[in-house]
Amino acid sequence: MSARRPVVESPLSPxxxxxxxxxxxxKGGLPQPARRVDNDFSRLFPGELLVGVETLNVDxxxxxxxxxAAGPGLSDAERDAAVVRQVEQTVRDRGKQHNPVTGSGGMxxxxxxxxxxxxxxxxxxxxxxxxxxxxxxxxxxxIDRVKAVRRASAQIDVEGEAVLFASGAYAxxxxxxxxxxxxxxxxxxxxxxxVARLVARxxxxxxxxxxxxxxxxxxxxxxxxxAAEARRTGGDRVKVxxxxxxxxxxxxxxxxxxxxxxAVADACDPIAVRRAVLEANGGEEADLVFxxxxxxxxxxxxxLVTRDRGTAYFFAMSTSFTKAALGAEGVGKDIDxxxxxxxxxxxxxxxxxxxxxxPAIRALFEKRYG
Length: 370
Ligand code: NAP
Fold this sequence. Notes:
Layout: E1 23-25, E2 36-37, E3 49-58, H1 60-69, H2 76-94, E4 106-115, E5 129-132, E6 141-150, E7 155-164, E8 170-172, H3 179-187, H4 191-204, E9 211-216, H5 221-234, E10 238-244, H6 247-256, E11 261-264, H7 270-280, E12 286-291, H8 299-304, E13 306-314, H9 321-330, E14 336-339, H10 347-357, H11 359-369
Parallel strand pairs: 9-10, 9-12, 10-11, 12-13, 13-14
Antiparallel strand pairs: 1-2, 3-4, 3-7, 4-5, 5-8, 6-7
This protein binds NADP nicotinamide-adenine-dinucleotide phosphate.
Protein backbone atom coordinates (compact mmCIF):
# COMPACT_ATOMS: atom_id res chain seq x y z
CA MET A 1 0.00 0.00 0.00
CA SER A 2 1.39 3.40 -0.94
CA ALA A 3 2.04 6.07 1.69
CA ARG A 4 -0.78 8.50 2.35
CA ARG A 5 -0.15 11.97 0.98
CA PRO A 6 -0.75 15.18 2.88
CA VAL A 7 -3.60 17.29 1.50
CA VAL A 8 -2.61 20.94 1.19
CA GLU A 9 -4.56 23.97 0.07
CA SER A 10 -4.71 24.47 -3.68
CA PRO A 11 -2.46 27.35 -4.82
CA LEU A 12 -5.46 29.07 -6.41
CA SER A 13 -8.62 28.46 -4.49
CA PRO A 14 -9.91 26.12 -1.81
CA UNK A 15 -12.67 25.14 -4.26
CA UNK A 16 -11.00 23.93 -7.45
CA UNK A 17 -13.18 21.22 -9.02
CA UNK A 18 -11.59 21.62 -12.47
CA UNK A 19 -7.97 21.25 -11.31
CA UNK A 20 -6.80 24.70 -12.34
CA UNK A 21 -4.33 24.65 -9.44
CA UNK A 22 -2.41 21.90 -11.28
CA UNK A 23 -2.00 23.92 -14.47
CA UNK A 24 1.58 25.21 -14.71
CA UNK A 25 1.55 26.62 -18.25
CA UNK A 26 -0.49 28.76 -18.32
CA LYS A 27 -0.59 29.07 -14.56
CA GLY A 28 -4.10 28.64 -13.25
CA GLY A 29 -5.56 27.70 -16.63
CA LEU A 30 -7.82 24.74 -17.29
CA PRO A 31 -5.74 21.54 -17.39
CA GLN A 32 -6.95 20.20 -20.75
CA PRO A 33 -5.65 23.00 -22.96
CA ALA A 34 -2.64 23.55 -20.64
CA ARG A 35 0.77 22.96 -22.15
CA ARG A 36 1.99 21.51 -18.85
CA VAL A 37 0.41 20.36 -15.61
CA ASP A 38 1.84 19.60 -12.18
CA ASN A 39 2.28 15.83 -11.70
CA ASP A 40 3.91 16.01 -8.29
CA PHE A 41 1.75 13.73 -6.18
CA SER A 42 3.83 14.01 -2.99
CA ARG A 43 0.88 16.17 -1.87
CA LEU A 44 -2.72 16.36 -3.00
CA PHE A 45 -5.16 19.24 -3.26
CA PRO A 46 -8.69 19.12 -1.83
CA GLY A 47 -11.12 17.22 -4.05
CA GLU A 48 -8.46 15.11 -5.78
CA LEU A 49 -8.54 11.34 -6.20
CA LEU A 50 -5.15 9.63 -6.38
CA VAL A 51 -4.98 6.54 -8.61
CA GLY A 52 -2.31 3.86 -8.80
CA VAL A 53 -2.21 3.50 -12.58
CA GLU A 54 -1.94 0.04 -14.15
CA THR A 55 -2.98 0.52 -17.78
CA LEU A 56 -3.19 3.44 -20.17
CA ASN A 57 -5.75 3.04 -22.94
CA VAL A 58 -4.27 5.42 -25.48
CA ASP A 59 -6.68 7.18 -27.84
CA UNK A 60 -6.76 5.32 -31.18
CA UNK A 61 -5.93 8.41 -33.26
CA UNK A 62 -3.01 9.24 -30.95
CA UNK A 63 -1.64 5.68 -30.95
CA UNK A 64 -1.83 5.51 -34.74
CA UNK A 65 -0.08 8.89 -35.07
CA UNK A 66 2.76 7.77 -32.79
CA UNK A 67 3.15 4.51 -34.73
CA UNK A 68 3.39 6.47 -37.96
CA ALA A 69 5.82 8.98 -36.47
CA ALA A 70 8.08 6.04 -35.57
CA GLY A 71 8.79 5.70 -39.29
CA PRO A 72 8.63 2.85 -41.82
CA GLY A 73 10.42 -0.48 -41.87
CA LEU A 74 10.38 -1.22 -38.13
CA SER A 75 9.63 -4.56 -36.50
CA ASP A 76 6.60 -4.70 -34.19
CA ALA A 77 8.87 -4.62 -31.14
CA GLU A 78 10.77 -1.57 -32.46
CA ARG A 79 7.51 0.24 -33.24
CA ASP A 80 6.14 -0.52 -29.75
CA ALA A 81 9.36 0.78 -28.21
CA ALA A 82 9.12 3.96 -30.27
CA VAL A 83 5.52 4.53 -29.11
CA VAL A 84 6.60 4.02 -25.49
CA ARG A 85 9.43 6.54 -25.90
CA GLN A 86 6.97 9.11 -27.27
CA VAL A 87 4.52 8.52 -24.43
CA GLU A 88 7.26 8.82 -21.82
CA GLN A 89 8.58 11.99 -23.46
CA THR A 90 5.11 13.56 -23.59
CA VAL A 91 4.46 12.79 -19.94
CA ARG A 92 7.88 14.18 -18.98
CA ASP A 93 7.27 17.37 -20.98
CA ARG A 94 3.63 17.95 -20.17
CA GLY A 95 2.87 16.07 -16.94
CA LYS A 96 0.07 14.28 -18.82
CA GLN A 97 -0.39 12.03 -21.89
CA HIS A 98 -1.58 14.85 -24.13
CA ASN A 99 -0.36 13.97 -27.62
CA PRO A 100 1.09 17.22 -28.99
CA VAL A 101 0.16 16.31 -32.58
CA THR A 102 -3.38 14.91 -32.28
CA GLY A 103 -4.24 16.82 -29.10
CA SER A 104 -5.95 13.69 -27.74
CA GLY A 105 -5.23 11.43 -24.77
CA GLY A 106 -7.11 8.27 -23.85
CA MET A 107 -8.03 7.01 -20.40
CA UNK A 108 -6.60 4.86 -17.63
CA UNK A 109 -7.31 1.88 -15.44
CA UNK A 110 -6.08 1.65 -11.89
CA UNK A 111 -6.82 1.42 -8.19
CA UNK A 112 -7.97 4.26 -5.95
CA UNK A 113 -5.13 5.02 -3.54
CA UNK A 114 -6.52 8.04 -1.72
CA UNK A 115 -9.57 10.32 -1.74
CA UNK A 116 -8.76 13.82 -0.58
CA UNK A 117 -11.45 15.64 1.41
CA UNK A 118 -13.78 17.88 -0.58
CA UNK A 119 -15.28 15.22 -2.83
CA UNK A 120 -18.93 14.21 -2.86
CA UNK A 121 -20.88 11.32 -4.36
CA UNK A 122 -17.95 8.96 -4.99
CA UNK A 123 -19.03 5.53 -6.22
CA UNK A 124 -15.61 4.08 -5.43
CA UNK A 125 -13.64 3.91 -2.20
CA UNK A 126 -9.95 3.47 -1.54
CA UNK A 127 -8.78 0.13 -2.96
CA UNK A 128 -11.48 -0.04 -5.65
CA UNK A 129 -10.54 -0.51 -9.27
CA UNK A 130 -11.69 2.22 -11.63
CA UNK A 131 -11.39 3.49 -15.19
CA UNK A 132 -11.20 7.22 -15.78
CA UNK A 133 -13.91 8.71 -17.99
CA UNK A 134 -12.04 11.95 -18.62
CA UNK A 135 -9.26 12.28 -21.13
CA UNK A 136 -5.61 11.61 -20.34
CA UNK A 137 -5.06 14.90 -22.16
CA UNK A 138 -6.05 16.67 -18.92
CA UNK A 139 -5.11 14.05 -16.30
CA UNK A 140 -1.89 14.70 -14.34
CA UNK A 141 0.13 11.49 -14.71
CA UNK A 142 3.50 10.11 -13.68
CA ILE A 143 4.90 6.95 -15.28
CA ASP A 144 7.46 5.03 -13.22
CA ARG A 145 7.78 1.95 -15.41
CA VAL A 146 6.35 0.61 -18.65
CA LYS A 147 5.58 -3.09 -18.45
CA ALA A 148 3.94 -4.06 -21.76
CA VAL A 149 2.37 -2.69 -24.95
CA ARG A 150 -0.75 -4.27 -26.45
CA ARG A 151 -0.92 -2.76 -29.92
CA ALA A 152 -4.24 -4.34 -30.93
CA SER A 153 -6.04 -2.48 -28.17
CA ALA A 154 -3.72 0.57 -27.97
CA GLN A 155 -3.16 -0.28 -24.30
CA ILE A 156 0.08 0.16 -22.36
CA ASP A 157 0.60 -1.50 -18.97
CA VAL A 158 2.50 0.77 -16.63
CA GLU A 159 3.31 1.47 -13.02
CA GLY A 160 2.52 5.05 -12.17
CA GLU A 161 0.15 7.46 -10.52
CA ALA A 162 -2.44 9.97 -11.63
CA VAL A 163 -4.92 12.37 -10.15
CA LEU A 164 -8.57 12.89 -11.05
CA PHE A 165 -10.15 16.21 -10.13
CA ALA A 166 -13.47 16.59 -8.33
CA SER A 167 -15.17 17.21 -11.71
CA GLY A 168 -13.49 14.19 -13.32
CA ALA A 169 -15.81 11.28 -14.04
CA TYR A 170 -14.75 7.69 -13.57
CA ALA A 171 -16.42 4.27 -13.55
CA UNK A 172 -15.99 1.54 -11.00
CA UNK A 173 -15.04 -1.55 -12.98
CA UNK A 174 -17.90 -4.04 -13.28
CA UNK A 175 -17.35 -7.48 -11.76
CA UNK A 176 -18.99 -9.39 -14.65
CA UNK A 177 -16.77 -8.21 -17.52
CA UNK A 178 -13.03 -8.70 -18.08
CA UNK A 179 -11.19 -5.53 -17.10
CA UNK A 180 -9.42 -4.99 -20.42
CA UNK A 181 -12.69 -5.37 -22.27
CA UNK A 182 -14.39 -2.89 -19.94
CA UNK A 183 -11.51 -0.44 -20.39
CA UNK A 184 -11.70 -0.70 -24.20
CA UNK A 185 -15.44 -0.11 -24.18
CA UNK A 186 -15.30 2.74 -21.68
CA UNK A 187 -12.72 4.51 -23.86
CA UNK A 188 -15.42 5.11 -26.47
CA UNK A 189 -18.39 5.19 -24.08
CA UNK A 190 -19.68 8.52 -25.42
CA UNK A 191 -20.34 7.18 -28.91
CA UNK A 192 -23.31 4.79 -28.67
CA UNK A 193 -25.54 6.97 -26.43
CA UNK A 194 -25.17 9.84 -28.90
CA VAL A 195 -26.08 7.52 -31.77
CA ALA A 196 -29.22 6.44 -29.90
CA ARG A 197 -30.27 10.07 -29.45
CA LEU A 198 -29.57 11.12 -33.01
CA VAL A 199 -31.25 8.10 -34.61
CA ALA A 200 -34.32 8.60 -32.39
CA ARG A 201 -34.37 12.27 -33.37
CA UNK A 202 -34.13 11.62 -37.08
CA UNK A 203 -36.88 8.99 -36.87
CA UNK A 204 -39.12 11.50 -35.10
CA UNK A 205 -38.63 14.07 -37.86
CA UNK A 206 -40.20 14.18 -41.29
CA UNK A 207 -42.67 11.31 -41.59
CA UNK A 208 -42.31 7.65 -42.40
CA UNK A 209 -39.70 7.80 -45.17
CA UNK A 210 -36.82 5.31 -44.71
CA UNK A 211 -33.77 6.59 -42.89
CA UNK A 212 -30.16 5.74 -43.45
CA UNK A 213 -27.09 5.80 -41.25
CA UNK A 214 -23.49 5.57 -42.43
CA UNK A 215 -20.60 4.71 -40.11
CA UNK A 216 -17.06 5.40 -41.32
CA UNK A 217 -14.44 3.18 -39.65
CA UNK A 218 -17.34 0.88 -38.81
CA UNK A 219 -15.19 -2.18 -38.10
CA UNK A 220 -13.27 -0.50 -35.26
CA UNK A 221 -14.25 -0.26 -31.61
CA UNK A 222 -16.48 2.81 -31.63
CA UNK A 223 -17.63 2.05 -35.18
CA UNK A 224 -19.04 -1.36 -34.23
CA UNK A 225 -20.84 0.13 -31.23
CA UNK A 226 -22.28 2.96 -33.36
CA ALA A 227 -23.52 0.56 -36.04
CA ALA A 228 -25.05 -1.76 -33.44
CA GLU A 229 -26.74 1.12 -31.63
CA ALA A 230 -28.15 2.52 -34.89
CA ARG A 231 -29.66 -0.90 -35.62
CA ARG A 232 -31.00 -1.32 -32.08
CA THR A 233 -32.58 2.15 -31.91
CA GLY A 234 -33.81 2.29 -35.51
CA GLY A 235 -34.75 -1.37 -36.02
CA ASP A 236 -35.90 -2.02 -39.58
CA ARG A 237 -36.78 1.65 -40.05
CA VAL A 238 -33.13 2.49 -40.71
CA LYS A 239 -30.66 1.22 -43.22
CA VAL A 240 -27.21 0.91 -41.63
CA UNK A 241 -24.20 1.09 -43.95
CA UNK A 242 -20.71 0.46 -42.63
CA UNK A 243 -17.56 1.70 -44.37
CA UNK A 244 -14.29 0.09 -43.29
CA UNK A 245 -10.88 0.09 -44.92
CA UNK A 246 -9.43 -3.02 -43.27
CA UNK A 247 -10.93 -6.11 -44.94
CA UNK A 248 -10.72 -8.47 -41.90
CA UNK A 249 -12.57 -5.89 -39.74
CA UNK A 250 -15.17 -5.47 -42.51
CA UNK A 251 -15.64 -9.24 -42.43
CA UNK A 252 -16.03 -9.21 -38.63
CA UNK A 253 -18.65 -6.48 -39.01
CA UNK A 254 -20.60 -8.45 -41.60
CA UNK A 255 -20.57 -11.40 -39.22
CA UNK A 256 -22.30 -9.33 -36.53
CA UNK A 257 -25.34 -8.80 -38.76
CA UNK A 258 -25.98 -5.23 -37.60
CA UNK A 259 -25.37 -3.58 -41.00
CA UNK A 260 -27.46 -3.82 -44.15
CA UNK A 261 -24.33 -3.27 -46.20
CA UNK A 262 -20.61 -3.13 -45.48
CA ALA A 263 -18.35 -1.45 -48.02
CA VAL A 264 -14.59 -1.83 -48.02
CA ALA A 265 -13.41 1.66 -48.91
CA ASP A 266 -10.87 4.24 -47.82
CA ALA A 267 -12.52 7.06 -45.89
CA CYS A 268 -9.72 9.35 -47.06
CA ASP A 269 -11.05 8.93 -50.61
CA PRO A 270 -14.36 10.84 -50.52
CA ILE A 271 -15.30 10.10 -54.13
CA ALA A 272 -14.88 6.34 -53.65
CA VAL A 273 -16.83 6.47 -50.38
CA ARG A 274 -19.64 8.47 -51.98
CA ARG A 275 -19.85 5.97 -54.83
CA ALA A 276 -19.96 3.02 -52.41
CA VAL A 277 -22.61 4.61 -50.17
CA LEU A 278 -24.87 5.68 -53.04
CA GLU A 279 -24.64 2.21 -54.46
CA ALA A 280 -25.59 0.64 -51.12
CA ASN A 281 -28.36 3.16 -50.45
CA GLY A 282 -30.37 3.14 -53.67
CA GLY A 283 -28.68 6.28 -54.98
CA GLU A 284 -29.53 8.32 -51.83
CA GLU A 285 -27.29 10.23 -49.44
CA ALA A 286 -27.63 9.38 -45.75
CA ASP A 287 -29.55 11.11 -42.95
CA LEU A 288 -26.85 10.51 -40.36
CA VAL A 289 -23.15 9.90 -40.79
CA PHE A 290 -20.76 8.97 -37.96
CA UNK A 291 -17.03 9.29 -38.47
CA UNK A 292 -15.22 6.77 -36.25
CA UNK A 293 -11.90 6.49 -38.08
CA UNK A 294 -8.53 6.89 -36.38
CA UNK A 295 -6.83 8.82 -39.20
CA UNK A 296 -6.94 12.42 -40.47
CA UNK A 297 -8.44 13.52 -43.79
CA UNK A 298 -11.73 11.65 -43.59
CA UNK A 299 -13.87 14.80 -43.16
CA UNK A 300 -14.98 15.07 -46.78
CA UNK A 301 -16.18 11.47 -47.00
CA UNK A 302 -18.61 12.23 -44.18
CA UNK A 303 -19.66 15.51 -45.77
CA LEU A 304 -20.17 14.10 -49.26
CA VAL A 305 -22.47 11.28 -48.16
CA THR A 306 -24.71 13.36 -45.85
CA ARG A 307 -28.04 14.43 -47.36
CA ASP A 308 -29.22 18.05 -47.43
CA ARG A 309 -30.02 19.07 -43.80
CA GLY A 310 -28.69 15.76 -42.54
CA THR A 311 -26.07 15.42 -39.79
CA ALA A 312 -22.42 14.44 -39.94
CA TYR A 313 -21.16 13.52 -36.47
CA PHE A 314 -17.39 13.51 -35.96
CA PHE A 315 -16.47 11.18 -33.13
CA ALA A 316 -12.95 10.81 -34.53
CA MET A 317 -10.30 12.84 -32.71
CA SER A 318 -8.37 13.00 -35.95
CA THR A 319 -11.02 15.35 -37.35
CA SER A 320 -10.09 18.88 -38.37
CA PHE A 321 -12.77 21.46 -37.66
CA THR A 322 -11.37 23.61 -40.46
CA LYS A 323 -11.41 20.84 -43.04
CA ALA A 324 -14.97 19.84 -42.16
CA ALA A 325 -16.41 23.36 -42.06
CA LEU A 326 -14.61 24.79 -45.07
CA GLY A 327 -15.01 21.55 -46.98
CA ALA A 328 -18.80 21.49 -46.48
CA GLU A 329 -19.01 25.11 -47.56
CA GLY A 330 -16.84 24.39 -50.58
CA VAL A 331 -19.20 21.73 -51.91
CA GLY A 332 -22.37 23.66 -51.01
CA LYS A 333 -23.61 21.22 -48.35
CA ASP A 334 -26.14 22.63 -45.86
CA ILE A 335 -25.67 19.95 -43.23
CA ASP A 336 -25.19 19.95 -39.45
CA UNK A 337 -21.61 19.21 -38.42
CA UNK A 338 -21.39 17.88 -34.88
CA UNK A 339 -18.33 17.41 -32.69
CA UNK A 340 -18.41 14.08 -30.84
CA UNK A 341 -18.65 14.84 -27.16
CA UNK A 342 -16.95 12.07 -25.19
CA UNK A 343 -19.44 12.54 -22.38
CA UNK A 344 -23.15 11.77 -22.22
CA UNK A 345 -25.27 11.10 -19.16
CA UNK A 346 -24.99 7.42 -18.14
CA UNK A 347 -22.60 6.75 -21.03
CA UNK A 348 -20.50 4.22 -19.14
CA UNK A 349 -23.51 2.16 -18.05
CA UNK A 350 -25.01 2.41 -21.56
CA UNK A 351 -21.91 1.12 -23.33
CA UNK A 352 -21.08 -1.60 -20.80
CA UNK A 353 -24.70 -2.80 -21.00
CA UNK A 354 -24.20 -3.25 -24.74
CA UNK A 355 -21.60 -5.92 -23.95
CA UNK A 356 -24.30 -7.82 -22.08
CA UNK A 357 -27.04 -7.39 -24.68
CA UNK A 358 -24.89 -8.08 -27.77
CA PRO A 359 -23.04 -11.33 -26.99
CA ALA A 360 -21.54 -11.48 -30.49
CA ILE A 361 -19.98 -8.03 -30.07
CA ARG A 362 -18.73 -8.98 -26.63
CA ALA A 363 -17.11 -12.10 -28.07
CA LEU A 364 -15.50 -10.08 -30.88
CA PHE A 365 -14.19 -7.42 -28.48
CA GLU A 366 -12.88 -10.03 -26.04
CA LYS A 367 -11.00 -11.62 -28.92
CA ARG A 368 -9.55 -8.27 -29.99
CA TYR A 369 -9.11 -6.32 -26.77
CA GLY A 370 -9.77 -8.70 -23.87
P1 NAP B 1 -10.33 1.96 -33.76
O1 NAP B 1 -10.87 0.81 -32.97
O2 NAP B 1 -8.89 1.97 -34.12
O3 NAP B 1 -11.23 2.06 -35.06
C1 NAP B 1 -10.94 2.89 -36.15
C2 NAP B 1 -11.36 2.13 -37.38
O4 NAP B 1 -11.28 2.98 -38.53
C3 NAP B 1 -10.44 0.93 -37.64
O5 NAP B 1 -11.19 -0.20 -37.99
C4 NAP B 1 -9.60 1.44 -38.79
O6 NAP B 1 -9.06 0.43 -39.61
C5 NAP B 1 -10.64 2.25 -39.55
N1 NAP B 1 -10.00 3.14 -40.51
C6 NAP B 1 -8.82 3.76 -40.38
N2 NAP B 1 -8.56 4.50 -41.46
C7 NAP B 1 -9.61 4.31 -42.30
C8 NAP B 1 -9.91 4.79 -43.59
N3 NAP B 1 -9.07 5.62 -44.22
N4 NAP B 1 -11.06 4.40 -44.17
C9 NAP B 1 -11.91 3.56 -43.54
N5 NAP B 1 -11.66 3.06 -42.31
C10 NAP B 1 -10.53 3.44 -41.70
O7 NAP B 1 -10.61 3.33 -33.03
P2 NAP B 1 -11.68 3.71 -31.90
O8 NAP B 1 -11.13 3.39 -30.56
O9 NAP B 1 -13.02 3.21 -32.30
O10 NAP B 1 -11.64 5.27 -32.07
C11 NAP B 1 -12.15 5.87 -33.27
C12 NAP B 1 -11.99 7.36 -33.22
O11 NAP B 1 -12.73 7.87 -32.11
C13 NAP B 1 -10.54 7.81 -33.03
O12 NAP B 1 -10.30 8.91 -33.89
C14 NAP B 1 -10.50 8.26 -31.61
O13 NAP B 1 -9.59 9.29 -31.45
C15 NAP B 1 -11.91 8.77 -31.40
N6 NAP B 1 -12.35 8.85 -30.02
C16 NAP B 1 -13.15 9.90 -29.72
C17 NAP B 1 -13.62 10.09 -28.45
C18 NAP B 1 -14.51 11.26 -28.15
O14 NAP B 1 -14.67 11.55 -27.00
N7 NAP B 1 -15.07 11.90 -29.16
C19 NAP B 1 -13.29 9.17 -27.44
C20 NAP B 1 -12.50 8.07 -27.77
C21 NAP B 1 -12.04 7.90 -29.08
P3 NAP B 1 -7.49 0.03 -39.47
O15 NAP B 1 -7.52 -1.18 -38.60
O16 NAP B 1 -7.06 -0.21 -40.86
O17 NAP B 1 -6.75 1.18 -38.84
